[in-house]
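User: Sequence recovery, please. Input:
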Protein backbone atom coordinates (compact mmCIF):
# COMPACT_ATOMS: atom_id res chain seq x y z
CA UNK A 1 0.00 0.00 0.00
CA UNK A 2 1.17 3.52 -0.76
CA UNK A 3 2.53 5.80 1.93
CA UNK A 4 1.16 9.17 2.93
CA UNK A 5 3.85 11.83 3.38
CA UNK A 6 3.69 15.12 5.19
CA UNK A 7 6.04 17.38 3.23
CA UNK A 8 6.82 20.77 4.77
CA UNK A 9 7.89 23.66 2.55
CA UNK A 10 6.52 21.97 -0.57
CA UNK A 11 5.85 25.30 -2.30
CA UNK A 12 9.54 26.23 -2.27
CA UNK A 13 12.23 25.32 -4.77
CA UNK A 14 13.35 21.89 -3.56
CA UNK A 15 10.10 20.95 -1.80
CA UNK A 16 8.01 21.46 -4.96
CA UNK A 17 10.46 19.45 -7.06
CA UNK A 18 10.35 16.73 -4.37
CA UNK A 19 6.54 16.51 -4.29
CA UNK A 20 6.46 16.13 -8.08
CA UNK A 21 9.33 13.63 -8.00
CA UNK A 22 7.62 11.44 -5.38
CA UNK A 23 4.24 11.40 -7.10
CA UNK A 24 5.94 10.55 -10.41
CA UNK A 25 8.15 7.78 -9.04
CA UNK A 26 5.80 6.40 -6.35
CA UNK A 27 2.40 6.68 -8.09
CA UNK A 28 0.48 4.99 -5.25
CA UNK A 29 1.77 7.42 -2.61
CA UNK A 30 0.03 10.62 -1.49
CA UNK A 31 1.35 13.91 -0.15
CA UNK A 32 0.09 16.62 2.17
CA UNK A 33 2.09 19.79 1.63
CA UNK A 34 2.24 22.14 4.63
CA UNK A 35 3.55 25.55 3.62
CA UNK A 36 2.88 29.04 4.98
CA UNK A 37 3.64 30.68 1.60
CA UNK A 38 6.41 32.92 2.84
CA UNK A 39 8.01 35.17 0.21
CA UNK A 40 9.71 32.10 -1.40
CA UNK A 41 6.68 29.82 -1.31
CA UNK A 42 4.83 29.85 -4.61
CA UNK A 43 1.70 27.79 -5.28
CA UNK A 44 2.35 28.08 -9.00
CA UNK A 45 5.32 25.73 -8.55
CA UNK A 46 2.84 22.85 -8.20
CA UNK A 47 -0.03 24.18 -10.31
CA UNK A 48 0.18 21.00 -12.44
CA UNK A 49 -0.92 18.91 -9.43
CA UNK A 50 -4.13 20.80 -8.75
CA UNK A 51 -7.02 18.34 -8.95
CA UNK A 52 -4.73 15.34 -8.39
CA UNK A 53 -6.41 13.27 -5.65
CA UNK A 54 -3.00 12.21 -4.32
CA UNK A 55 -2.03 15.78 -3.48
CA UNK A 56 -3.32 18.11 -0.77
CA UNK A 57 -2.11 21.62 0.04
CA UNK A 58 -2.52 23.04 3.53
CA UNK A 59 -1.58 26.64 4.11
CA UNK A 60 -0.09 26.88 7.58
CA UNK A 61 2.96 27.51 9.68
CA UNK A 62 5.22 24.73 10.96
CA UNK A 63 5.19 26.54 14.32
CA UNK A 64 1.42 26.04 14.66
CA UNK A 65 1.35 23.18 17.19
CA UNK A 66 -2.29 22.22 16.85
CA UNK A 67 -2.20 22.10 13.05
CA UNK A 68 1.13 20.26 12.98
CA UNK A 69 -0.14 17.63 15.46
CA UNK A 70 -3.21 17.01 13.33
CA UNK A 71 -1.20 16.62 10.12
CA UNK A 72 1.50 14.43 11.67
CA UNK A 73 -1.21 12.17 13.09
CA UNK A 74 -2.54 11.56 9.56
CA UNK A 75 0.77 10.80 7.83
CA UNK A 76 3.15 7.83 7.71
CA UNK A 77 6.32 9.93 7.49
CA UNK A 78 7.49 13.56 7.56
CA UNK A 79 9.92 15.07 5.05
CA UNK A 80 10.91 18.47 6.37
CA UNK A 81 12.09 21.10 3.87
CA UNK A 82 10.41 24.25 5.24
CA UNK A 83 12.99 26.85 6.20
CA UNK A 84 14.25 30.34 5.79
CA UNK A 85 16.92 29.47 3.24
CA UNK A 86 18.85 32.51 2.01
CA UNK A 87 22.18 33.49 3.61
CA UNK A 88 21.98 37.17 2.58
CA UNK A 89 18.58 37.54 4.22
CA UNK A 90 19.93 35.97 7.41
CA UNK A 91 22.65 38.64 7.46
CA UNK A 92 19.99 41.37 7.21
CA UNK A 93 17.71 39.85 9.88
CA UNK A 94 18.40 36.55 11.62
CA UNK A 95 15.23 36.39 13.70
CA UNK A 96 12.92 34.63 11.18
CA UNK A 97 15.68 32.06 10.74
CA UNK A 98 15.67 31.14 14.42
CA UNK A 99 11.88 31.21 14.52
CA UNK A 100 11.25 28.96 11.51
CA UNK A 101 14.37 26.81 11.36
CA UNK A 102 14.78 26.16 15.09
CA UNK A 103 11.32 26.64 16.64
CA UNK A 104 9.49 25.28 13.61
CA UNK A 105 11.60 22.13 13.57
CA UNK A 106 11.08 21.71 17.33
CA UNK A 107 7.31 21.95 16.84
CA UNK A 108 7.38 19.21 14.19
CA UNK A 109 9.66 17.00 16.30
CA UNK A 110 7.43 17.37 19.32
CA UNK A 111 4.40 16.28 17.26
CA UNK A 112 6.33 13.31 15.84
CA UNK A 113 7.56 12.31 19.31
CA UNK A 114 3.98 11.62 20.41
CA UNK A 115 3.90 8.62 18.06
CA UNK A 116 7.08 6.96 19.32
CA UNK A 117 6.33 3.58 20.87
CA UNK A 118 8.08 1.94 23.84
CA UNK A 119 10.87 0.51 21.71
CA UNK A 120 11.38 3.78 19.80
CA UNK A 121 10.50 4.33 16.15
CA UNK A 122 7.22 6.02 15.29
CA UNK A 123 6.83 7.92 12.07
CA UNK A 124 10.01 8.40 10.09
CA UNK A 125 11.24 12.00 10.15
CA UNK A 126 13.59 13.08 7.37
CA UNK A 127 15.21 16.40 8.15
CA UNK A 128 16.61 18.17 5.09
CA UNK A 129 19.69 20.13 6.08
CA UNK A 130 22.68 21.68 4.36
CA UNK A 131 26.45 21.30 3.95
CA UNK A 132 26.72 24.88 5.24
CA UNK A 133 26.53 23.56 8.84
CA UNK A 134 30.12 22.30 8.38
CA UNK A 135 31.48 25.81 7.77
CA UNK A 136 34.08 26.61 5.13
CA UNK A 137 36.95 24.72 3.46
CA UNK A 138 40.21 26.35 2.28
CA UNK A 139 40.76 26.84 -1.45
CA UNK A 140 44.33 25.51 -1.28
CA UNK A 141 43.34 22.08 0.10
CA UNK A 142 41.28 20.46 -2.69
CA UNK A 143 41.82 17.11 -0.94
CA UNK A 144 39.57 18.21 1.96
CA UNK A 145 35.81 17.57 1.78
CA UNK A 146 33.02 17.56 4.34
CA UNK A 147 32.23 14.10 5.71
CA UNK A 148 29.45 13.27 8.16
CA UNK A 149 32.15 13.28 10.88
CA UNK A 150 33.26 16.87 10.15
CA UNK A 151 32.46 18.98 13.24
CA UNK A 152 29.73 21.59 12.89
CA UNK A 153 31.27 25.03 12.46
CA UNK A 154 28.63 27.50 11.40
CA UNK A 155 29.51 30.93 10.05
CA UNK A 156 26.23 32.57 8.95
CA UNK A 157 23.03 33.06 10.93
CA UNK A 158 21.37 30.81 8.32
CA UNK A 159 23.77 27.92 8.87
CA UNK A 160 23.70 28.44 12.65
CA UNK A 161 19.91 28.12 12.65
CA UNK A 162 20.08 25.00 10.45
CA UNK A 163 22.69 23.46 12.76
CA UNK A 164 20.40 24.23 15.71
CA UNK A 165 17.63 22.27 14.01
CA UNK A 166 20.00 19.39 13.17
CA UNK A 167 21.05 19.15 16.82
CA UNK A 168 17.42 19.05 17.94
CA UNK A 169 16.70 16.22 15.49
CA UNK A 170 19.67 14.28 16.87
CA UNK A 171 18.46 14.92 20.42
CA UNK A 172 14.94 13.65 19.67
CA UNK A 173 16.41 10.48 18.20
CA UNK A 174 18.76 9.93 21.13
CA UNK A 175 16.40 10.88 23.95
CA UNK A 176 13.02 9.68 22.72
CA UNK A 177 13.99 7.09 20.11
CA UNK A 178 12.36 9.04 17.27
CA UNK A 179 13.05 7.41 13.89
CA UNK A 180 14.87 10.42 12.45
CA UNK A 181 17.43 10.81 9.66
CA UNK A 182 19.30 13.97 8.59
CA UNK A 183 20.45 14.80 5.05
CA UNK A 184 23.08 17.48 4.36
CA UNK A 185 23.16 18.62 0.78
CA UNK A 186 25.32 20.94 -1.30
CA UNK A 187 24.04 23.82 -3.49
CA UNK A 188 21.09 22.85 -5.69
CA UNK A 189 20.23 24.11 -9.15
CA UNK A 190 17.23 23.45 -11.40
CA UNK A 191 13.72 24.73 -12.20
CA UNK A 192 11.58 26.84 -9.81
CA UNK A 193 14.46 28.27 -7.74
CA UNK A 194 13.61 31.64 -6.24
CA UNK A 195 15.48 34.30 -8.27
CA UNK A 196 17.45 35.61 -5.31
CA UNK A 197 19.83 32.61 -5.50
CA UNK A 198 22.80 33.03 -7.76
CA UNK A 199 21.87 30.94 -10.84
CA UNK A 200 18.28 32.15 -11.43
CA UNK A 201 19.28 35.70 -10.41
CA UNK A 202 22.09 35.84 -12.96
CA UNK A 203 20.11 34.21 -15.78
CA UNK A 204 17.03 36.40 -15.29
CA UNK A 205 19.14 39.57 -14.91
CA UNK A 206 20.82 38.81 -18.23
CA UNK A 207 17.47 38.25 -19.96
CA UNK A 208 16.37 41.63 -18.58
CA UNK A 209 19.57 43.24 -19.91
CA UNK A 210 20.97 43.82 -16.41
CA UNK A 211 24.47 43.02 -15.17
CA UNK A 212 25.22 40.16 -12.77
CA UNK A 213 26.51 41.14 -9.30
CA UNK A 214 29.51 38.95 -8.49
CA UNK A 215 30.54 39.05 -4.82
CA UNK A 216 34.18 39.72 -3.89
CA UNK A 217 36.89 38.09 -6.00
CA UNK A 218 34.51 35.44 -7.38
CA UNK A 219 36.82 32.64 -6.25
CA UNK A 220 34.37 31.11 -3.75
CA UNK A 221 33.58 27.50 -4.62
CA UNK A 222 30.27 25.63 -4.40
CA UNK A 223 29.52 21.95 -5.16
CA UNK A 224 26.53 22.06 -7.54
CA UNK A 225 23.85 19.33 -7.53
CA UNK A 226 20.79 19.10 -9.76
CA UNK A 227 17.61 19.32 -7.67
CA UNK A 228 16.25 16.02 -9.08
CA UNK A 229 19.39 14.24 -7.89
CA UNK A 230 18.73 15.76 -4.46
CA UNK A 231 15.07 14.65 -4.54
CA UNK A 232 16.10 11.11 -5.46
CA UNK A 233 18.62 11.06 -2.62
CA UNK A 234 16.05 12.27 -0.07
CA UNK A 235 13.59 9.61 -1.24
CA UNK A 236 16.35 6.98 -0.95
CA UNK A 237 17.13 8.09 2.60
CA UNK A 238 13.42 8.06 3.48
CA UNK A 239 13.09 4.48 2.25
CA UNK A 240 16.44 2.98 3.17
CA UNK A 241 18.41 5.28 5.47
CA UNK A 242 19.47 3.99 8.87
CA UNK A 243 17.67 5.60 11.78
CA UNK A 244 19.68 8.25 13.62
CA UNK A 245 22.21 8.66 10.80
CA UNK A 246 23.37 11.69 8.84
CA UNK A 247 23.83 11.37 5.06
CA UNK A 248 25.80 13.89 3.01
CA UNK A 249 24.51 14.51 -0.52
CA UNK A 250 26.69 16.19 -3.14
CA UNK A 251 27.22 16.55 -6.86
CA UNK A 252 30.99 16.02 -6.99
CA UNK A 253 30.79 19.16 -9.10
CA UNK A 254 32.89 21.96 -7.58
CA UNK A 255 32.90 25.28 -9.44
CA UNK A 256 34.13 28.74 -8.53
CA UNK A 257 31.59 31.54 -8.85
CA UNK A 258 33.74 33.00 -11.66
CA UNK A 259 33.60 29.71 -13.54
CA UNK A 260 29.84 29.51 -12.98
CA UNK A 261 29.32 33.10 -14.14
CA UNK A 262 31.37 32.65 -17.32
CA UNK A 263 29.52 29.41 -18.10
CA UNK A 264 26.15 31.21 -17.78
CA UNK A 265 27.39 34.14 -19.90
CA UNK A 266 28.58 31.74 -22.60
CA UNK A 267 25.30 29.79 -22.68
CA UNK A 268 23.42 33.08 -23.00
CA UNK A 269 25.77 34.53 -25.63
CA UNK A 270 26.81 37.47 -23.40
CA UNK A 271 30.27 38.94 -22.76
CA UNK A 272 32.20 39.42 -19.52
CA UNK A 273 31.34 43.16 -19.56
CA UNK A 274 28.02 42.01 -18.04
CA UNK A 275 29.82 41.10 -14.78
CA UNK A 276 29.41 43.76 -12.09
CA UNK A 277 31.91 43.13 -9.26
CA UNK A 278 30.29 44.08 -5.94
CA UNK A 279 31.37 44.12 -2.29
CA UNK A 280 31.76 40.68 -0.78
CA UNK A 281 29.10 39.03 1.40
CA UNK A 282 29.89 39.42 5.11
CA UNK A 283 31.51 36.26 6.47
CA UNK A 284 31.36 34.67 2.98
CA UNK A 285 32.24 30.95 3.21
CA UNK A 286 35.11 30.22 0.83
CA UNK A 287 34.48 26.68 -0.30
CA UNK A 288 31.95 23.88 0.18
CA UNK A 289 32.68 20.34 -1.02
CA UNK A 290 30.82 17.19 -0.08
CA UNK A 291 32.17 13.69 0.38
CA UNK A 292 29.06 11.65 -0.52
CA UNK A 293 30.69 8.22 -0.23
CA UNK A 294 28.52 7.14 2.73
CA UNK A 295 25.20 7.39 0.88
CA UNK A 296 26.77 5.72 -2.17
CA UNK A 297 28.23 2.87 -0.11
CA UNK A 298 25.26 2.27 2.22
CA UNK A 299 22.25 3.16 0.07
CA UNK A 300 23.59 2.90 -3.49
CA UNK A 301 22.79 6.51 -4.43
CA UNK A 302 24.98 8.63 -6.74
CA UNK A 303 24.15 11.74 -8.79
CA UNK A 304 23.24 11.09 -12.43
CA UNK A 305 21.71 14.42 -13.53
CA UNK A 306 24.23 17.01 -12.34
CA UNK A 307 27.06 16.81 -14.91
CA UNK A 308 28.03 20.10 -16.56
CA UNK A 309 27.79 21.67 -19.06
CA UNK A 310 24.58 19.81 -20.05
CA UNK A 311 22.74 20.08 -16.71
CA UNK A 312 23.56 23.78 -16.38
CA UNK A 313 22.47 24.44 -19.99
CA UNK A 314 19.13 22.71 -19.38
CA UNK A 315 18.53 24.78 -16.24
CA UNK A 316 19.42 28.05 -17.99
CA UNK A 317 17.06 27.09 -20.85
CA UNK A 318 14.26 26.42 -18.34
CA UNK A 319 14.47 30.04 -17.12
CA UNK A 320 14.74 31.31 -20.70
CA UNK A 321 11.55 29.41 -21.63
CA UNK A 322 9.60 30.09 -18.44
CA UNK A 323 9.82 33.88 -18.38
CA UNK A 324 6.23 34.18 -17.15
CA UNK A 325 7.03 32.16 -14.02
CA UNK A 326 9.98 34.27 -12.88
CA UNK A 327 8.60 37.59 -14.08
CA UNK A 328 5.57 37.02 -11.86
CA UNK A 329 7.90 36.14 -8.98
CA UNK A 330 10.14 39.16 -9.51
CA UNK A 331 7.14 41.51 -9.78
CA UNK A 332 5.35 39.98 -6.78
CA UNK A 333 2.40 39.04 -9.00
CA UNK A 334 2.66 35.36 -8.02
CA UNK A 335 1.19 36.18 -4.62
CA UNK A 336 -2.21 36.92 -6.20
CA UNK A 337 -2.45 33.34 -7.39
CA UNK A 338 -3.49 32.12 -3.97
CA UNK A 339 -6.45 34.50 -3.88
CA UNK A 340 -7.50 33.52 -7.42
CA UNK A 341 -7.13 29.84 -6.73
CA UNK A 342 -8.33 29.52 -3.14
CA UNK A 343 -9.88 32.85 -2.19
CA UNK A 344 -13.45 31.80 -2.98
CA UNK A 345 -13.27 28.27 -1.55
P1 LIG B 1 12.91 27.89 -0.40
O1 LIG B 1 13.17 29.16 0.33
O2 LIG B 1 12.78 27.92 -1.88
O3 LIG B 1 11.58 27.19 0.17
C1 LIG B 1 11.25 27.20 1.53
C2 LIG B 1 9.76 26.89 1.65
O4 LIG B 1 9.44 26.81 3.06
C3 LIG B 1 8.86 27.97 1.05
O5 LIG B 1 7.82 27.38 0.29
C4 LIG B 1 8.28 28.69 2.27
O6 LIG B 1 7.00 29.23 2.06
C5 LIG B 1 8.25 27.55 3.29
N1 LIG B 1 8.29 28.05 4.68
C6 LIG B 1 9.16 28.96 5.20
N2 LIG B 1 8.86 29.18 6.50
C7 LIG B 1 7.81 28.39 6.80
C8 LIG B 1 7.04 28.19 7.98
N3 LIG B 1 7.33 28.84 9.12
N4 LIG B 1 6.01 27.32 7.94
C9 LIG B 1 5.69 26.65 6.78
N5 LIG B 1 6.38 26.83 5.63
C10 LIG B 1 7.42 27.68 5.65
O7 LIG B 1 14.10 26.92 0.05
P2 LIG B 1 14.77 25.69 -0.73
O8 LIG B 1 15.94 26.18 -1.47
O9 LIG B 1 13.73 24.91 -1.42
O10 LIG B 1 15.31 24.84 0.51
C11 LIG B 1 14.52 23.81 1.09
C12 LIG B 1 15.32 23.14 2.21
O11 LIG B 1 16.52 22.59 1.69
C13 LIG B 1 15.74 24.09 3.32
O12 LIG B 1 15.58 23.43 4.56
C14 LIG B 1 17.20 24.37 3.03
O13 LIG B 1 17.91 24.65 4.22
C15 LIG B 1 17.64 23.05 2.42
N6 LIG B 1 18.77 23.13 1.47
C16 LIG B 1 18.72 23.97 0.39
C17 LIG B 1 19.76 23.99 -0.52
C18 LIG B 1 19.72 24.86 -1.75
O14 LIG B 1 20.70 24.89 -2.52
N7 LIG B 1 18.65 25.56 -2.04
C19 LIG B 1 20.88 23.16 -0.32
C20 LIG B 1 20.90 22.31 0.80
C21 LIG B 1 19.84 22.30 1.68
P1 LIG C 1 23.68 31.51 -3.13
O1 LIG C 1 22.94 31.10 -4.35
O2 LIG C 1 23.15 32.62 -2.30
O3 LIG C 1 23.88 30.17 -2.25
P2 LIG C 1 24.79 29.95 -0.90
O4 LIG C 1 25.20 31.26 -0.36
O5 LIG C 1 23.81 29.26 -0.01
O6 LIG C 1 25.93 29.09 -1.32
O7 LIG C 1 25.15 31.91 -3.55
C1 LIG C 1 26.00 31.00 -4.23
C2 LIG C 1 27.36 31.68 -4.39
O8 LIG C 1 27.19 32.80 -5.28
C3 LIG C 1 27.90 32.24 -3.09
O9 LIG C 1 29.31 32.05 -3.04
C4 LIG C 1 27.57 33.72 -3.15
C5 LIG C 1 27.61 34.02 -4.64
N1 LIG C 1 26.70 35.08 -5.08
C6 LIG C 1 27.17 36.16 -5.85
O10 LIG C 1 28.37 36.24 -6.18
N2 LIG C 1 26.28 37.13 -6.23
C7 LIG C 1 24.97 37.08 -5.89
O11 LIG C 1 24.21 38.02 -6.26
C8 LIG C 1 24.48 35.98 -5.11
C9 LIG C 1 23.04 35.88 -4.71
C10 LIG C 1 25.39 34.99 -4.73
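Assistant: Recovered sequence (345 residues):
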Amino acid sequence: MGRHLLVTGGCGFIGSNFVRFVLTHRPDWSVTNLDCLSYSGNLENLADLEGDARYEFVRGDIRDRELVEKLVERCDAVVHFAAESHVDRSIMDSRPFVETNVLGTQTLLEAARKHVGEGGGGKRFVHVSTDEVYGSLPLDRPDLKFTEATPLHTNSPYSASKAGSDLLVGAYHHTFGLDAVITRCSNNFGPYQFPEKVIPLFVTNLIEGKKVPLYGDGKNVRDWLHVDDHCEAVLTVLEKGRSGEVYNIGGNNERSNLELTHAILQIMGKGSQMIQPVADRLGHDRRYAIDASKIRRELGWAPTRSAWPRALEQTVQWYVKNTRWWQRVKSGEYRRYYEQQYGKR
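The domain at 4-190+226-253+286-304 is CATH 3.40.50.720 (Rossmann fold).
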